[in-house]
Amino acid sequence: MPESRNNCRYLIREKFFTIGNSFKIKDELGHNKYIIRSKMWTFGRKLILEDMNGNALLKIHQKAFRFLDQFNILSARDGELNQQVASIRQKFTFFKNSYKIYSKYGEYKFKGLDVYDQAFVLKNKDDKTIAIVNKKYLAIPHTYDVEVINSINDQIREDHAFILALIIALHCLYYC
Question: For the whole model, what pTM was predicted?
Answer without folding.
Answer: 0.84
